């Protein structure tokens, strides 16, 4: 008998168990919203920002017992910049762009099974410490399910931060019907040139994604530039 003939047939391999995740509930709502946002004719602008003065302020406040995140300073800079650039604080309607007077910042909060965006209303009227406190309160409420539906409504601009996840830069999807969103990466020490010398500085990358139907590249660039300037010069008034 040949060696080939003596081989027994290989045992059948059972099919792998099929696992699925239904697009229903929160996941389904996210899928529908992101599909709508992806269809927007969007453009991204990006800028690296030196946070040396912000970090100095954070250290000063920490010494006084006040813990403030970088994101709170970003929110303050965004809210103030939106005052001067109202075309970014707007909603896309069927045949028009609605410019909104109130500056209501959505803050993306990651959950185990999705993403929620509670809203800080009248954000331009709140100081950095107030924005930090409200961001913490909204994040805790979103994760515990304690927020009511009204906490997620009437947003006019969204800020999403992946710095804690170690992401340097990313281009987020616009949260419709808003016309723009700001992505915030991690703050990392990088080599830069300052006064002709190479020094290490805390740098964060900001990415503005905007709906080109509502906003052109130049006004969007001016808006992002003002955010960067306020952060680099610690101008929060």
Automatic annotation (TrEMBL):
<feature type="domain" description="2-oxoacid dehydrogenase acyltransferase catalytic">
    <location>
        <begin position="17"/>
        <end position="234"/>
    </location>
</feature>
<dbReference type="Pfam" id="PF00198">
    <property type="entry name" value="2-oxoacid_dh"/>
</dbReference>
<keyword id="KW-0808">Transferase</keyword>
<keyword id="KW-0012">Acyltransferase</keyword>
<dbReference type="InterPro" id="IPR050743">
    <property type="entry name" value="2-oxoacid_DH_E2_comp"/>
</dbReference>
<dbReference type="InterPro" id="IPR023213">
    <property type="entry name" value="CAT-like_dom_sf"/>
</dbReference>
<protein>
    <submittedName>
        <fullName>2-oxo acid dehydrogenase subunit E2</fullName>
    </submittedName>
</protein>
<dbReference type="InterPro" id="IPR001078">
    <property type="entry name" value="2-oxoacid_DH_actylTfrase"/>
</dbReference>
């Amino acid at each position: 008998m040949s060696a080939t003939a003596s081989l027994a047939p290989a045992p059948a391999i059972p099919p792998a168990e099929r696992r699925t995740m239904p697009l229903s509930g929160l996941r389904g709502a996210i899928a529908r919203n992101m599909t709508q946002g992806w269809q927007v004719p969007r453009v991204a602008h990006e800028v690296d920002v030196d946070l040396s003065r912000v970090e100095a302020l954070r250290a000063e406040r920490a010494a006084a017992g006040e813990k403030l995140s970088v994101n709170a300073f970003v929110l303050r800079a965004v809210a103030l910049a939106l005052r001067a650039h109202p075309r970014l604080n707007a909603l896309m309607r069927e045949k028009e762009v609605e410019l909104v007077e109130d500056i209501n910042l959505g803050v993306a909060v990651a959950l185990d099974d999705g993403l929620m965006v509670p809203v800080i209303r009248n954000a331009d009227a709140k100081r950095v410490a107030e924005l930090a406190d409200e961001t913490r309160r909204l994040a805790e409420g979103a994760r515990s399910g304690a927020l009511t539906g009204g906490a997620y409504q009437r947003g006019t601009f969204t800020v999403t931060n992946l710095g804690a996840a170690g992401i340097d830069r990313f281009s987020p999807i616009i949260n419709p019907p808003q016309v723009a969103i700001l992505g915030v990466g991690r703050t990392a020490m990088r080599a830069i040139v300052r006064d002709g010398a190479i020094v290490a500085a805390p740098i964060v990358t900001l990415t503005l994604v905007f709906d080109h139907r509502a906003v052109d590249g130049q006004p969007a660039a001016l808006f992002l530039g003002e955010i960067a300037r306020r952060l680099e010069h610690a101008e929060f008034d």
